[in-house]
UniProtKB/TrEMBL annotation:
The lineage of its organism: Bacteria, Bacillati, Bacillota, Bacilli, Lactobacillales. Its EC number is 2.1.2.9. This is Methionyl-tRNA formyltransferase. One of its GO terms (molecular function) is methionyl-tRNA formyltransferase activity. It comes from Lactobacillus porci. The keyword Protein biosynthesis applies.
């Protein structure tokens, strides 16, 4: 079976790596991001890819910056595997390293390229209200996500999907497509297709400022932002100077003549007016310093302190 160097970090990457291991590929090395410290106690957390590599006893490397690491020059450059495979790694790979692959260096990318090149393709698909997404197996080149495409598979997006659920669905789809495609690349039967430069759409990492739900959005746009940023990092409203994270929301069937940012009702539902007379029902929220809660629990506590008809969403400060 062909040899592989694998690079990835989150669960999406772990699922792809698991597929390679189970299929019998000779994984010579696994590269993932360094461990993170999370929470007030700064607990060290391994990436899902690291957990899987340790489970299978695979050689593991965690350079903070691959392009300037001793591991690259002293180990990885000398392996010369048949394939270099990446799946949500999170770092640029030096061209000199990519060229050490005897057959090909390929990436499992979570979009239907050339749409959504970059680090947040799933989030952009949800934020933009797309009805489908997919996976592309592509050749890795120096320019981000610009290589020729070997294969694609599509996935419908439901109204209930979040970034988390789409990731969960795309991971096995990407693993399966990769395992179907690698043998065809190896035997020369897989024809590469160049990306149409006129169809390129970029999806850079979501900025902190973009996490905020603005009342200049329609209710549909606000709901899609909530879906795109669930489960991480979460979208939020600024309500009377306090951040209120919104984990689930729905577009209400009724409209409102109130200015955007006003509370319609806090009786049975928590409904806020948005642009174009649209209304958003908040379904699950998280006040600052508290755990996420269903809206009925929020209404039993803080929700009643707001008066229907008043503007509760701040626009000009954070």
């Amino acid at each position: 079976m062909n040899s592989v160097i694998f690079l990835g970090t989150p669960q999406f990457g772990a699922t792809v790596l698991e597929g390679l291991v189970k299929a019998g590929y000779d994984v010579k090395a696994v590269v993932t991001q360094p461990d993170k410290k999370v929470g007030r106690k700064q607990k060290i957390v391994y990436s899902p890819v690291k957990d899987l590599a340790l489970k299978h006893g695979l050689p593991l490397y965690q350079p903070p910056r691959l392009s300037r690491s001793e591991e690259l020059d002293e180990v990885l450059m000398n392996i010369c595997p048949d394939f270099i495979v990446t799946a949500a790694f999170g770092q640029f790979l030096p061209s000199r390293f990519l060229k050490t692959a005897k057959i090909a260096a390929v990436n499992v990318h979570g979009s239907l390229l050339p749409k959504y090149r970059g680090g947040a393709p799933i989030q952009y698909a949800l934020r933009n209200g797309d009805k489908e997404t997919g996976v592309t197996i592509m050749e890795m080149v120096k320019e981000m996500d610009a290589g020729d495409m070997y294969a694609q598979a599509t996935l419908p997006i439901s109204e209930e999907d979040t970034a988390g659920t789409v990731f969960e669905k795309l991971a096995p789809l990407g693993s399966q497509l990769l395992l179907e495609t690698l043998p065809k690349i190896a035997d020369g039967s897989c024809q590469k297709q160049p990306q149409d430069p006129d169809q390129v759409v970029f999806s850079p990492t979501i900025s902190k400022a973009e996490e905020r739900i603005l009342t200049s959005m329609t209710a549909e746009e606000a709901k899609n932002l909530v879906r795109a940023l669930n489960p991480d990092p979460g979208a939020y409203l600024l309500v009377k100077g306090q951040r209120l994270k919104v984990w689930r929301a729905e577009v209400a069937s009724d409209n409102s003549s109130l200015p955007a940012g006003c509370l319609l009702t806090n009786s049975g539902r928590f409904a806020i007016s948005f642009a174009d007379n649209t209304v958003l029902n908040l379904l699950e929220v998280q006040p600052t310093g508290k755990k996420a809660m269903k809206i009925k629990d929020f209404l039993n506590g803080q929700g009643k302190k707001f008066v229907p008809g008043e503007r509760i969403v701040d626009e000009d400060k954070d």
